[in-house]
Amino acid sequence: MAGSDEESLDDLPPSAKLVFKVLEYNGPLTQKGIVEESMLSARTVRYALERLEGIGIVDEDVYFADARQNLYQLNETADEFKSGEEADAEACAAE
Predict the structure, then answer these.
(1) Residue 86: beta bridge partners?
(2) Cross-referenced Gene3D superfamilies, in alphabetical order (predicted)?
């Protein structure tokens, strides 16, 4: 992205892209759930979540089942990062 200071999903490391896909396919998860699904280390998942939060596509909320943990989920901004086929399929399903 020449001349742009704004970071996008394409600019993130593969671990952050994997965490994005895990949240996309599984819905809201705790950090522990993301670690289990992605098979990445907890430290790598923490870093990936920081990067995803930094570009504004992941929201962090309180996990009410265990308030010591946080629940991570994609927000509305994440819809623009979905692959073309998935966005087309969702658009057709909505009609």
Answers:
(1) none
(2) Winged helix-like DNA-binding domain superfamily/Winged helix DNA-binding domain
Domain 11-94 is in which class?
Answer: mainly alpha
C-alpha 77/C-alpha 63 separation (Å) is 21
Q: How far apart are CA 21 and CA 35, in angstroms?
A: 13
Q: Quick one: what percent of the chain has pLDDT higher than 70?
A: 80
Kindly calculate the radius of gyration of the chain based on its CA atoms and give it in whole angstroms.
Answer: 14
Q: How far apart are CA 51 and CA 46, in angstroms?
A: 9
**Assessment of whether the complete model's pTM goes beyond 0.85:** no
For the cut 90, the answer to whether the pLDDT of residue 39 exceeds it is yes
Cα 79-28-24 angle, rounded to 5 deg: 40
End-to-end Cα, the chain, rounded Å: 35
Q: Are 48 and 40 in contact (CB under 8 A)?
A: yes
